[in-house]
Amino acid sequence: MSLRRRRQPRDDIRELLDRDLFMPFRLVLSSGMQYDVLDPQMTVLLKSEIFVAFPDGERSSLIPLLHVTSVETPANGRRRRTPRRKGR
User: What is the pTM of this model?
Assistant: First the structure.
């Protein structure tokens, strides 16, 4: 029997921050709050937390990695279309 170890959010975040071509991603927390990471230079990944500064330069957050439940990336870069109504 082999046990598969679940990847830690820190590993996923590190991989996304280290990409040659950065793609923004979203951190989803256990509280339901979401943080968009838009620039790798405005982010510092620490041992047990991630520091995220926001583009307005006025706000920042220190997020415990323990509370990160998922790391989301855009599926394919396209927005979903809303269905057209018939008869209009």
Answer: 0.74
